[in-house]
């Protein structure tokens, strides 16, 4: 058990020295690999993680975690923000060493919402939206993709979602559309909807633009979330699948377990993922 603690402490590069990393109960056998062959994917944060924090507090947590990429949510930068507001918030992130690499998740239930989302992405200066357009808006969304050259990564939201519960439902809607229409794979929601995340990566790699990573405690519809590494998602298999398909997007942690006091849980999750990347 002490070696497990040492593993987490060692691999949580750049995290605050005062953070504690509780012992994790799962998958200790995964760490017997050759650490001289490290797999590296860029780690980001899904903005929803910081629902209860303002921009400044979110930046401070990310700096402690040594994570420098974020998908911005509208509670930090509203969709109807003025150009001055956008400039101000982007400067805050830049000054904190944080790259805003995309925006979303943005829900699109009307043509006006689609227009707003693409205009917002353009003004923020990103080339991708993580979004959820209704089925009847997919043709219109495709038109906007072609007009603006801004990609859309459709996010699956689990068995509760009537539109896109799992990655297959996204794939079925976009596979014959413009190649700039793809998937933001939420691995926790995918598993709750019955799809193993590593299999989803292999099946849908051609349109895999972004990822939200988390963990869940069981392969069940109503499974609760937990720190990455404490649940049932096979992260070594997931990282190996990403390596196999030569994934070049972001893997963004979306931590939802204790959202009013998330830092230690995020740190454990990020440290676990970094550790797996060092050992697969």
Question: How would you explain this protein's 3D organization?
Answer:
The protein contains 10 helices and 10 strands. The model is unreliable at 1-35 (pLDDT under 50). The protein has helices spanning 2-11, 55-65, 83-95, 111-124, 138-148, 167-174, 187-192, 197-204, 235-244, 263-279, and strands spanning 42-46, 69-72, 99-108, 128-133, 151-155, 181-186, 208-213, 215-216, 225-226, 250-253. Helix 1 packs across helix 10. Strands 1-2-3-4-5-6-7-10 form an 8-stranded parallel barrel, surrounded by 6 helices. It has a two-stranded antiparallel sheet with strand order 8-9. Helix 3 links the parallel strand 2 (69-72) and strand 3. The protein has one domain (2-279): Alpha-Beta Barrel (TIM Barrel), CATH 3.20.20. It is globular. The chain starts with a helix and ends with a helix. By secondary structure, it is an alpha/beta fold.
**Based on the structure given, which CATH architecture is correct?**
Alpha-Beta Barrel
Provide the succession of SSEs: HEHEHEHEHEHEHHEEEHEH
In the CATH scheme, the class would be Alpha Beta
Strand percentage lies at 15-25%
Number of helices: 10
Overall strand count: 10
Rg, rounded, reads 18 Å
Question: Can you tell me the CATH superfamily?
Answer: Divalent-metal-dependent TIM barrel enzymes
What general outline do the C-alpha atoms trace?
A: globular
**What is the mean pLDDT?**
90
Strand order in space, largest sheet:
1-2-3-4-5-6-7-10
State the end-to-end distance.
20 Å
Number of domains: 1
**Major beta sheet, specifics?**
8 strands, parallel, barrel
Helical content band:
25-40%
Helix/strand/pairing class, anyone? alpha/beta
Low-confidence stretches: 1-35
CATH topology: TIM Barrel
GO molecular function: isomerase activity
Keywords: Isomerase
InterPro entries: IolE/XylAMocC-like, TAT_signal, Xyl_isomerase-like_sf, Xyl_isomerase-like_TIM-brl
Domain Xylose isomerase-like TIM barrel: 82-269
